[in-house]
Amino acid sequence: MNVKIAHIAAIFTVLALAGCANNGPDGGHSEKWYEKHTADMRAENKWCAGQSLDTQMHSKSCTQAERAASNIISQKEHQSYLNTIKSIDKGIAALPKEAQQGEAQMRAYNNCLENGGNFASCDKTGDKKSG
Known about the structure:
Protein name: Lipoprotein
Signal peptide: 1-23
Number of helices: 5
Distance between the termini: 119 Å
Keywords: Signal
Radius of gyration: 34 Å
Number of strands: 0
């Protein structure tokens, strides 16, 4: 009787471990878990990279860890994009003042030219140079 129970227990143990064969050192977690545990995600992805393509494709842990890595990269790229937009917005907000100053200087320069000045005699402010 004890031998039969031991055999049945051994079979269940082998079957249970066979289900874990496609998981790496940090396998069996969700995508969101891997996003929060990046060191474990990297370890799982490293393990997956060393496995056969078949194992990589059929391992839920490999899929979850890879998706988490992609999500993190996408989030960083999105944040970088938002930071660029914010920077551009700041530049645009400053542009009208600078553009107005530049336009006033150009108008004065053109007036200098129209009033008998030449490229050498008019400076950028529109005043005629003496001399």
